[in-house]
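Good day; I would like, with your permission, to put a structural problem before you. A protein sequence and the structure tokens that stand for its backbone fold form the material at issue. Thank you for your consideration; the sequence and its tokens are set out here:
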Amino acid sequence: MNIIQAVNSALDHALSHDEDVFVFGEDVGKFGGVFRATDELQAKHGEHRVFDTPLSEGGIIGMAIGMAVYGLKPVPEIQFSDFIYPAFDQIVSEMAKFRYRSGGEYPCPVTIRTPFGGGIRGGHYHSQSPEAYFAHTAGLKVVVPSDPYTAKGLLLASIDDPDPVIFLEPKRVYRASRAEVPEEAYKLEIGKAAIDREGTDITVITYGAMLHEARRAADLLAENDISAEVIDLRSLVPLDEETILESVKKTGRVVIVHEAARTCGFGGELAAVIAEKALLHLEAPILRVTGYDTPFPFTLEQQYLPDAFKIFEACETTIDF
């Protein structure tokens, strides 16, 4: 499967086996979604389970919150993560706070699916990476699959989680990434990173579409006799600090990769955790390979995005320190 097919498979299973699951958003019904992730789901499960909404992100998420507090498991889609900001108050002030303000009496199991990141020549209104905004908000979980296998397993786990989840799908590899995916249901633990590739000389930490660039960089490094360990975070909140720190203590060198802007990007939090808890194991400064502190460009998209060569150069710099 590719990621689109894996997401569709997960939603199909959730709708088939849990009558409390509802899927809705702009164009997700008859049209099947702008990326076709919800294709055929309305025809199979009915217009009352999979339905279109007005173009009102605040309304979409507000309705989802009401449904969740009532006991349902809504899975709203925000067509592009860039459009999520009109719903920001609903997410941060309401959705993230219900469990806390009710003393645990009212969980809010909403899973917000949204494509994020660049790589499709979408310009500055269709290419943003807003993960840090939500990682900063207590009460939200932030989950980022990187390939079809993680997409299905993490989405099913998110839908069944009692807490609200921001589920960020890397759209640049929606169809480019393919993997073996079981037809049956399975769940991957939220908050557990994966060692995508083992290595001994340097640790490369990343998530989402950047995992594929990190893999290519690791291949280039191997050609130069440098063994890179690649970590796929999968979940930003909760964060698997144990896997990160064990790897850093083994290699002594770290490069962090994400395509969001550098300033206050999630890489800064990762660097802080490593500096606080594994400083004496470091043999070189922690380096970040990120996007720039500018709006996401259209004509210079490939110059903006991190790639395997930029990661390779950062790793060489760290190794040579």
